[in-house]
Amino acid sequence: DLSVIGPLARSAADLALALDILAGPNDLDAAGYRLELPPPRCTQTRGARVLILDQHPEIATAASIRTMLDRVASELEREGALVARGSPLLPDLARGARIFAALLFAAMAPRWPKQVIDELRAAATALPRDDDSVTGYRLRGATFSHGDWLLLDGERFQRRIAWKQLFREFDVVIAPPMPTPAFPHDHEPDFDARRIAIDGADYPYGDMSLWAAVATEPGLPATTVPIERTADGLPIGVQIIGPYLEDRTPLAFADLMERIFGGFVAPEAFV
């Protein structure tokens, strides 16, 4: 239930059209359920309540990404949005990262070979009892009992309620979708040995997903839009996170941001 990537499109309007076509109950549920998503909260930038996040407790954020977010904040304020850079209502991102890590590996592990699961179980057993690392949550999640999963899933539900409280004060949350611009992929067979470099410091490769986990762990809708390019010509953007089941809000705000920042521009090689 964490597999929520896509679809991709060249504009927020196309994504909104795709949502209209694709969203709804499957054939088994269609007899008793129908989907009625609320209208977007924001139809104009002026007056929109925006929370911008540029720091995560578990992973650094590249300077180029933080600079881009500063520009986003300034431009939105110029357009009349009410922009904040923090809130005491924000659920604990560090705890969310751990829940995400455990539930993600719990979802993936059933498809892995028994030998891999046995190795992960041994590694999880060898962890100190007080280990509270994201890596430790991944290892334990891969060998969860159903009861373990239910406990974390219940905590995730409580966190969704906490996010609902936040969205009484804000219409959207804007954050990086990734901690860096695009980077050369690391194909080291040992996944745990892979590293991602952020402004000269190395971090576990798997931790790059923790910004995406901000929306994914509580099941919030998010739309990622391009903003600008780095000095090396690499595109960088933001994810616009909306309230639970209010998918039309981040889509509509993405459309507003396209008008400010220019939206998708095809790379020169493809023009």
Describe it for me?
The protein has 271 residues and is of the alpha/beta class. 39% of the residues lie in helices and 13% in strands. It is built from eight helices and seven strands. The strands form two sheets. Strands 2-1-3-7-6 form a five-stranded mixed β-sheet. Strands 4-5 form a two-stranded antiparallel ribbon. Helix 2 (63-78) links the parallel strand 1 (49-52) and strand 2. Helix 3 (93-108) runs parallel beside helix 5 (134-142). The chain is globular. The relative contact order is 0.19.
State the distance separating the first and last CA atoms: 37 Å
Mean pLDDT: 92
Strand content: 5-15%
Q: Rg from C-alpha positions?
A: 20 Å
Number of helices: 8
Q: How many strands, which pairing sense, and closed or not: the largest β-sheet?
A: 5 strands, mixed
Strand order of the largest sheet: 2-1-3-7-6
Q: What class do helices, strands and sheet pairing give?
A: alpha/beta
DSSP strand tally: 7
What general form does the structure show?
globular
Low-confidence stretches: none
- Helix share of residues? 25-40%
N-to-C series of helices and strands: HEHEHHHHEEEHEEH
